[in-house]
Amino acid sequence: MSRSVAAPRVVNIQDLRLLAKRRLPRVVFDYIDGGADAEITLRENSRAYDDIAFRPLSAVETPSPDLRTTVLGTPLSMPMILAPVGSSRMFYPHGEEVAARAAGQAGTLYTLSTLSGCKLEDVRRATTGPAWYQVYLCGGRDVACTAIERAKSVGYSALVVTIDTAVAGLRERDVRNGTKELLTRRPWPMLPYVWQFIARPAWLTGFLGDGGLMSFPNVMLSDGPMLYADVGAALEQSTVTWRDLRWIKDLWKGPIVVKGVHIGDDARRAIDAGADAVVVSNHGGRQLDGVRGTVQVLPEVVAAVRGQIEVLVDGGIRRGSDIAKALCLGARAVLIGRAYAYGLGAAGGPGVARAIEILRTDLIRTLKLLGCPSTAALDQSYVDVPRHWLVDQRRSEAKVLFAG
Ligand SMILES: Cc1cc2nc3c(=O)[nH]c(=O)nc-3n(C[C@H](O)[C@H](O)[C@H](O)COP(=O)(O)O)c2cc1C
Asked: What is the DSSP string of 77-133?
């Protein structure tokens, strides 16, 4: 473990966040850290975990809790997956490859975003672990089809189809930091914002050494890889619908994970469209602001799914105890986004490895203190949750019964 991210300097994920803030230019740090509009959902994702209280069994010996699980049949060393995080190459040279390698070394799974700065083949080669590929339809079906075929041929084991991005959310911090102006690559519009890079010479050296402003090599348009400045428009023209999902399913012929489900009804629609798993996700509070924290809606989705497919959740996870709470409420596993992105921005591979280690040791300690022998044994009996979350669950069940 690199000393720069070891204890006592780095004890929790917040410490990695502060290190990332120190190493990255403001525009890059805020791209990771920020959310949409008033950032209500961003905050709510983490805060909602505070509303769940543990009910531990005391005086129980749990010498070595078992964290192992499978997700869609793939064995994992713990119930935690690295979520797709676009543009990771901006956080650290070859960022997606570096993060995927750290995930594999930790015995877990990496999800590569369509909006990656590294080629999907290079990322697959970088990890000894399993990997999923996340799909946007930027550039249209033909462009996505090429990427999906490439992903299949190099061994990505599932496709993650993100359905909450009909348009990119308004990230106000990005507007203030001059993201749009910086992407013009024209000196005059850029000038008021370049101080952010000059203030972070170590990052700048790495960034320029890695080729400077990245494009998206997995979105191959007729005139070359999609440029950064074109992402917003491309997303807006390529909303993924349930019809697209069936098309993707036919093309891929392997497991499909639908990411971005907020309500029980959409989980049912995902099942009807052939999903093998859903991720309860609001994109880490980066899309529609004002939706509830994901762990609050998890019981509703779990009830609606009725055990037919696996339910995963992401958003706001910063401690191992958060993972335990999500599992108690029926998640098969969680995905983490910012928790590892901060590590990547702070220190590259060792930073990602440290983020995973923090969450793993937290989770082991939580299980011991709960008197629970394994993550598989976690259930609702270990937590008290606000009543109205479960009322929503009953409402969803009633609806499902009525519909069925
Ligand atoms: C910087 C950043 C970029 C992201 N890019 C993508 C993406 O390209 N595709 C996607 O499906 N989700 C993307 N997400 C959302 C994550 O996959 C995940 O849903 C979210 O980060 C979970 O919340 P958390 O960051 O609080 O853990 C991104 C999140 C962040 C922070």
From this structure: SSSEEEPP-TTGGGTSTTHHHHHHHHHHHTT--EEE-TT-SS-HHHHHHH-SS-EEE
Cα 373 from Cα 141, distance rounded (Å): 47
> Whole-angstrom Cα distance, residue 252 to residue 297?
29
- The yes-or-no verdict on residue 404 having pLDDT over 60 is no
99 lines ligand 1 (CB under 6 A): no
DSSP per residue over 1-25, as a string?
--GGGSTTT--SHHHHHHHHHHHS-
Whether the pTM exceeds 0.85: the reply is: yes
Cα of 214 vs centre of ligand 1, distance in Å, is: 18
Q: Which two tokens stand for residue 2?
A: 């690199």
Note whether 41 and 290 are within 8 A (CB): yes
What whole-number distance in Å separates Cα of residue 328 and Cα of residue 384? 10
Which member of 94, 262, 283, 388 is catalytic? Answer: 283
Q: Is there a catalytic annotation at residue 94? A: no
pLDDT of res. 401: 44
Question: Which are the contacts of 161, defined by CB distance < 8 A and separation ≥ 6?
Answer: 134, 135, 240, 244, 245, 248, 256, 257, 258, 259
Residues constituting the chain: 404
Does position 22 have pLDDT exceeding 70, yes or no? yes
CA-nearest residue for atom 4, ligand 1, is 85
Q: SS3 of 332, please?
A: coil
User: 317 CB under 6 A from ligand 1?
Assistant: yes
Number of Cβ within 10 Å of residue 130's Cβ equals 23
Buried b (16+ CB within 10 A) or exposed e, 33-63: bbbbbebbbbebbbebbeebeeeeeeeeebe
In this predicted structure, what is the pLDDT of residue 339? 98
- Gap from CA of 404 to ligand 1 centroid (Å): 34
With CA atoms as reference, report the closest residue to 117 among 226, 34, 259.
226
Confidence check: pLDDT of 219 > 80:
yes
In the reported structure, the alpha carbon of residue 90 is separated from the centroid of ligand 1 by a whole-number distance in angstroms of 14
What distance in Å separates the CA atoms of residue 85 and residue 113, rounded to the nearest whole number?
6
Instruction: Give yes or no for residue 337 CB within 6 A of ligand 1.
Output: yes
Q: Is 341 in the pocket of ligand 1 (CB under 6 A)?
A: yes
Which three-class secondary structure state does DSSP give residue 251?
helix
Cβ of 165 closer than 6 Å to ligand 1, yes or no, is no
Residue 207 has pLDDT above 70, yes or no: yes
396, pLDDT greater than 60: no
For residue 160, the ligand 1 atom closest to its alpha carbon is 11
Q: Concatenate the DSSP letters of all residues of 125-136 into one string.
A: HH-SS-EEEEE-
